[in-house]
Known about the structure:
The chain starts with a helix and ends with a helix. The radius of gyration is 38 Å and the shape is elongated. The protein folds into 2 domains: 35-157, Farnesyl Diphosphate Synthase (Orthogonal Bundle), CATH 1.10.600.10; 166-382, Farnesyl Diphosphate Synthase (Orthogonal Bundle), CATH 1.10.600. It has helices at residues 2-8, 10-22, 36-48, 53-56, 61-82, 88-96, 98-101, 117-121, 123-130, 135-156, 159-164, 169-193, 205-222, 224-229, 237-240, 256-271, 274-281, 287-307, 322-332, 336-353, 361-378, 384-397, 403-430, 438-454, 461-464. The model is unreliable at 455-465 (pLDDT under 50). The protein is built from 25 helices and no strands. Helix 3 (36-48) packs across helix 5 and helix 18 (287-307) runs antiparallel to helix 19 (322-332). By secondary structure, the protein is an all-alpha fold.
Amino acid sequence: MGAIYYLMHPRELRSIVQWKLWHEPVNRRDPKTESATLQECFRFLNMTSRSFSAVIQELNHELLVPVTLFYLVLRGLDTIEDDMTIPLSTKVPMLREFHVTMDQDGWQYHDSKEKDRELLEHFDCVITELKKLKKPYYDIIKDMTFKMGNGMADYAQNTEMIQNGVQTIEEYELYCHYVAGLVGEGLTRLLVASNLANPKLGERPELTESMGQFLQKTNIIRDIHEDWEDGRRWYPKEIWSKHVERWEDLFDPKYRTQAVECISDMVLDALKHVEDCLFYMAGMRDQSAFNFVAIPQAMAIATLELCFRNPAVLERNVKITKGDACQIMLESTQNLQVLCEVFRRYARRIQKKNDPRDPNFLAISARCAKIEQFIETLFPRQDPKKLVQEARAKQTQEPTMSTSETAIMIGVVLAVLLTMTGLMVGIAWFMGARFDNTFSDTAKLFSSSAGSAGSPTSITGRDEL
């Protein structure tokens, strides 16, 4: 089936081949220089992350290990939070004290039933490598672990939200902050501390927050069917209640139109972060750091476009094709201008799919237009100064007409006039016009006019009467 698909979509096959053959990693790991515990950490990274593993391992060597360990610590937290077999009396203290657990040599946990439980069973490898980090990096990871652990513990104890789902947009964004915004904050602090990003990013927390919010909201929009099957409700009631009366109605074919409009509403909410994301990515000072932040964001805008007005989102877990993913990665790993073109392309696709019958039609159109306008301010397609210079150069290069060419042109015009005159006279003669007395009558007319002008006629009384 896959072969048939790519035969029908050769462009996607071409993108896959190009990525496999021509993509050259900015940096490469050297396993020969790594300790056994660090190699084990990279094995866990490959095991627990399909989307981030490759891009993390291409990071600048200064941040390769810190970001890998940061990811594994957060994955450990996430595994504990997601494991419904762990009683709250055990789970909550584990989450709140995980930043302390990071300091305990040999710590392991063997009672998890989650798919990534192997990471917890061998977490001592992560702890060993954490203690080898530079102190600034270690302190950042520990601080973010403390914040995220407490945030997860708060949500684990929030039985009302677990039973009834997220109620307001404010609660929705607070949840996204704890599970993604804090990740963005930690990564930004690591990037700035390593001098791979502009230090000013540390002074603009709203940009960092938007990076995390955009990714997490995209995941929530895409995973609505999977979350519904697992009994989770991350779509805020403040949004879905505008379209259906009950949460379950979103998955009832009778309300398919309303459900699609609800997804459009969620997409509109996510798109408000795009400008901040582009502004943030402009602050990267290293190509590998740029690739690290750009690829997930480009994938997110493509996923939003795929989910927008797509009823399949309510029936299964949709995802962009491998060919499209490779094309996005090829473009996103070049520079900010090419990345902006990716965002422009998908914003236009969203606008093209927008339905005038959708209650948010105008708002979505305006939001897409704002994205394009923002990109235009970063990289104008038409530079006024350049246009003036090109016009002047064009005028200078245009050849002028020589004297001989002018004479030829006049001769041609006169010949045409004479030909047309002769043709008209001939037609008139053929139709019966007489020209034999023309010249004599004309001479008499001129002579009589001259005589009248020389002797004016006297006026008599009779003439007056």
